[in-house]
């Protein structure tokens, strides 16, 4: 006899959405729900409202990651505080200078490549389809070798 499902349609979608919004991965969400990973994936297939709740929960997380990727593509500024301290002969530390510095983080080439390959795959994919007409190629090769006098 099959074991009774732990799935609760009143709570699982809501809980799953919240856990996804909190940036938990599938295995972590399954653990929080008290189910195995295989059951977790089974619920996604069997209950569309559960899958939809997970997707809704991941929207803000995906948005945050996309914004971080864009920042890495364009470069950005970071404010840093540099503190200089001096230790007296008595062993006491004393702040002698606090300096605020704006540091520019250069654009990251890997992030740019990733972005372009995913947003514009036809232009920036690694593999390009090349169609070779071997009949034309043979004619060209024969002509170059002086055998194309027909």
Walk me through what this model shows.
The protein has 150 residues and is an alpha+beta fold. It has a domain at 1-74. The protein is 54% helix and 17% strand. It is built from seven helices and two strands; from the N terminus they run ααααββααα. It has helices at residues 12-21, 26-33, 37-46, 48-74, 109-119, 121-124, 134-144; strands at 76-87, 93-105. The chain has a two-stranded antiparallel ribbon. A hairpin with a 5-residue loop joins β1 and β2. The protein is flat. The termini are far apart. The model has no long low-confidence stretch (mean pLDDT 90).
Q: Sketch the topology as an H/E string, one letter per element.
A: HHHHEEHHH
For this structure, the quaternary state is: single chain
- The overall pLDDT, averaged over residues, is 90
Gap between N and C termini, in Å? 81 Å
Cα Rg: 30 Å
Shape, per Cα inertia axes: flat
Q: Give the beta-strand count.
A: 2
Widest beta sheet: strand line-up: 1-2
Largest sheet: 2 strands, antiparallel
Percent in strands? 15-25%
Count of helical regions: 7
Outline the low-pLDDT stretches: none
Given the helix and strand composition, which structural class is it? alpha+beta
Range of helix content: 40-55%
């Amino acid at each position: 006899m099959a074991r009774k499902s732990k799935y609760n349609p009143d709570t699982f979608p809501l809980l799953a959405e919240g856990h996804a919004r909190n940036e938990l991965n599938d295995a972590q969400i399954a653990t929080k729900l008290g189910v195995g990973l295989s059951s977790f994936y089974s619920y996604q297939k069997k209950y569309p409202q559960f899958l939809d709740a997970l997707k809704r929960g991941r929207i803000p997380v995906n948005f945050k990651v996309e914004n971080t990727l864009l920042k890495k593509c364009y470069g950005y500024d970071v404010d840093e505080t540099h503190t200089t301290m001096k230790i007296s002969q008595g062993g006491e530390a004393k702040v002698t200078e606090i300096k605020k510095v704006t540091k520019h983080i250069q654009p990251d080439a890997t992030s740019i490549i990733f972005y372009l390959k995913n947003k514009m795959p036809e232009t920036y994919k690694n593999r390009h389809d090349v169609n070779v007409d071997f009949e034309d190629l043979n004619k060209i090769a024969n002509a170059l070798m002086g055998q194309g006098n027909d």
